[in-house]
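Page 47, continued from p. 46.
Same chain as before, 247 aa.
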Amino acid sequence: MPAVFVHGVPETPRIWDPLLEELGRDDVVTVQLPGFGCPRPDGFGSTKEEYTDWLIGEVERIGADGPVDLVGHDWGGGLTVRLVSVRPELVRTWVSDAIGLGDPDFEWHDFAKIWQTPGEGEQFWEQQLAAPVEERAGVFEMFGVPHDRAVALAGSVDQTMADSILALYRSATNVGKEWGPQFRDIPSPGFAVIPSEDAFLNDQSARKGAATAGAQVIEFDGLGHWWMLQDPARGAVALTEAWASVS
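Result:
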């Protein structure tokens, strides 16, 4: 069965490269969110529900012969939460570091609140895109991303991605209240990744979401939001052990 990896914001599938080099699986598929380093289909509004439907379609296609191992980071992790809530039969196992989006009391981080505010969000991305890539990369480095990977992350952001981010976050102001009621007692084995230094996703909501969904917790002490770039070997070991525990 294939393993499907879903990136987040503001990212492309390249964030998984270092981890996949360590992983050693030859059946991995990385999917690319529409608008994130690629065009958006005509009429695609980049809302959370449209991305959910898109991911369901991708997993159905990739897993045509059976359920997949699904791994989601950031918004990819949020979409994983939603997919297993409504279509759990599509996955053998699932891993999310954004499991808190399934907590009805989930609260967004400060950047998200800026992006959700008309005018402020547009101004934020206008300023970001006007800055040199090296300067933008410094923000990622502040959160533990190695320099070369930070430059690659910053360089991948364009106007299409910025527009997609604004639309996605503005569709999700009440995501916990909307998605939380269905995110409980998920029949497929799940794992909640909780990095101790994650500055964007709430530890309390993550643990609450894991408990209601019946997911096991994977602790990454000393790592932050981009754990797969900070210590890809550690991430690969944790995933391998998680999959092995249910095989």
